[in-house]
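Researcher: Can you fold this with adenosine-5'-diphosphate in place?
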Amino acid sequence: MSTKYVYYFGGTSSDGRSDMKNLLGGKGANLAEMCNIGLPVPAGFTITTEVCTYFYDNNRQYPETLRAQIVEALKKTEEEMGAKFGDPENPLLVSCRSGARVSMPGMMDTVLNIGLNEQTLKGLIKKTGNERFAWDSYRRFVQMYGDVVLGMKPQTKEDEDPFELLLHKMKKKKGVHLDNELDTDDLKKLVKQFKKAVLERTGKDFPDDPMEQMLEAVGAVFQSWGNDRAVVYRRQYNYPHTWGTAANICSMVFGNMGDDCATGVAFTRDPATGEKVFYGEYLINAQGEDVVAGIRTPNKIAELKIAMPEVYQQLDDIRNKLEKHYRDVQDIEFTVQKGKLWMLQTRNGKRTGFAGVRFAVDMVHEGLISKEEAISAGRIPPDDLNQLLQPIFDPEAKRKAVEEGRLLAVGINAGPGAATGKIKFYADDAEAYVNSFSRDANGKLPEDAQVVLVRQETSPEDIRGMQVATGILTAFGGASSHAALVSRQMGKVCIVGCGELKIDYKKRTVTAGGKTLKEGDWIAIDGFSGEVMEGKVATKPSEVVQVLISKTMKPEESKVYQQFAELMSWADDVRKLKVRTNADQPDQAAAAIAFGAEGIGLCRTEHMFFDHILPMREMILSSNTEQRKAALEKLLEFQRSDFAGIFRAMKGKPVTIRTLDPPLHEFLPTLDQKDKQKEVAKMIGVSPKSIEKRIKELHELNPMLGFRGCRLGNVFPEITEMQARAIIEAACDVAKEGIAVEPEIMIPLVGFLPELKAQVKLVHAIAEKVFAEKGTKVKYLVGTMIELPRACVAAAEIATEAEFFSFGTNDLTQTTLGISRDDYGSFIRHYIENDLVKKDPFQVIDFDGVGALMKLGVEKGRSVKHDLKIGICGEHGGEPDSVKFCHRIGLNYVSCSPFRVPIARLAAAQAVLEEKNKK
Ligand code: ADP
Ligand code: MG
Ligand code: MG
């Protein structure tokens, strides 16, 4: 038997089913399914995606047996609908609709009213007794067919649609505004003009043969799979180009035959808020796209209850039936022809993060789905939880801003949320500016105190400016650049790598999208989408944060919070991975705990040092051990109290503290910052010249591969000693207060066993000393970060000295791929757009390379210590796919920035479910 290319649907039985989306496309599979469950669907058939791939592989030809199969399915369709395709007495009209496996809204084409010509038109008039309607349909058909099949659709924004032009002229001539105010004669004239335009443009007469019309429309639908828009869309969502689209031939039903007709679209629940209300719009006496096209203002679906009570009742029943059947919210299209309701489409509705959570929780309570289904990735992509945590732009306000031409540029969306603020170009300016305002009784700053820090890039010195800023926008840097990293950790809205920005620090202006903004001007940035907009855009605060962090709302006041909390508890019941946070300060730690963190996976001590930059500089610039020790003495005090604060906030939860890591030069004044050099010189009591000399000595060509990590602690043991002392002393002090402590000291950038061994020995020696001094003991671990390929390969050796491992996947990615995370902005987009890499490796773990090394590290490490505790503390620890990978290779925990903790919790639960489903 030859391949089945055509699948019939109609009446109450179909060849297809809803689970055949790969072959029939989503639209085709669901049209078939709706027939199967007894809903009224105009009969028709689906030409499979295989025909589309055949079409592309064979020089735009159809398979030989296709035509015969179409003829057969068409016969069944005609019987079901009681009309004949191309018949001058009783003509059947059809539509030809695209439909891929996944919905690609607005990307591909559809042609309505196929089968019309001068003869069938007469039949249609006779059959319906409605001449105007018939001519209106013909007018629409010639226009759509001309646009889609004959390629007359405008290619650029400047081009005009020749049909729209003629239509416009006609309306002007008649002095009317709306299409439906034109009379039959006008429409007749228009059809004539349209056909003439076709002949002029294509050199051929408009086709009259219905079968030719249908087959050509099918070809055009297939072609639309390959159009630019569709290609770009697939790349964005990672859908393969090889899938192809199906083409659906569907009997026409008419919503434009009079006032007892209508067409509409609806969601079975509100897709923005998740509320369980029927949500949609319809138009009386209209066809197809009219509702969405905005030609006339549509009515709310609730009004249909009054306009057509019986139809509304039927539709509402269908709404319930569909939800019960699909067990998810549906997005439907329907048409009412002379009081009879027809269903034209159903699919799982796209939703916001808010709606996703609410749908899932409500449906569990309604008994429609299980808890496990509720937390599955198909229903709630973990990243969508972001929307519940971050302030968001009011969608209306944003749409308006874009319409008004205020969109300036688009960068990399690095920190989700919405921020509106005044432009500041320097961190210290931002800080001074914001601090010049005072807080109200609720601790809130006035609106004018909102700042967006706009910079080429940020450095650790900008931290405090970043802290006060509402949003951060940089021209350079990628998704794990300093700005991105710090912003996420602080939960700040952030866009990085926005190359279109031209920043002039001298003039204090930024230019983009042909506009120049000054310091102090308002700017709005959307960290969800990367969009940068001129002026203010209204925002809405997140209720979850109000309940958990700022405590300005009570749990019982926020439905969103309650549902979020319930969903998270289901995720916690399922997941095996622990979730920790990366936090350097007590308030960050406290926020993370409120979000469900079970410990700190990475506390970077250098961030603490930035609050005490002067003694830090003193320490680095010292030219002998004595000077250095004197400086360290000062730092010890700060560090001890910082650590104590964190231990208190964590209340016995494990806290992993990394000893000093970053390249030292990051802390130093630059060569042209003479005043800052003088300041340190005075402090240490040396000449400014010698400071300059020391800065030059410390200069490195490649600091990322330079004097950093445990290399510092090995060359200057007193640094590690001071840090170990600060940690252990703080732990003892807090333990004495009656608060449990669980410190884990982590040595960074270890490659060779002896590097670790020496540091471990130092830490133990200091700990013993402190215990003796304090007359008390605490339990602590010493482990290492695994962030060099050598450490993965030699993990068995390293495990002999390490009490735990933590993968530092930022550095591991840099060193494995030989890509600098600070400089990859210049080429990574090209790589992604040309499919040279699948994903940004600093966002999603490169599973086959970096991931394989991690797997090796786990195996080797546990071959020595079978229950070795292993985690991840790179930025990847809060990225859902990477979290799932960590689960698969058997890590004990992931650690991520506070605002990503809920996302990691959900992803960790999904990892368990996905594993179960595979088995
Ligand atoms: P899209 O995937 O862009 O929604 P569709 O194939 O669903 O495209 O069709 C576009 C519009 O035409 C929709 O409003 C749809 O309801 C309408 N339409 C499609 N086929 C028919 C038909 N056979 N009868 C009436 N309206 C139709
Ligand atoms: Mg549709
Ligand atoms: Mg590192």
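Model: Folded with adenosine-5'-diphosphate in place. The longest helix spans residues 625-650.
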